[in-house]
Amino acid sequence: MEKEIEKAKAIPQGFKRRLYLVALLTEALKPYDIRPIVVGGAAVEFYTLGNYATLDVDLVSGGYERIDHILRGWGFTKRGRYWENVELDIAIEVPDSELAGSYDKIIEVEIEGMSLYVIGVEDLIIDRLNAFVYWRSERDGEWAKQLMALHEGRIDWRYLEERARAEGVIEALNHLRREID
Question: Are 74 and 84 in contact (CB under 8 A)?
Answer without folding.
Answer: no
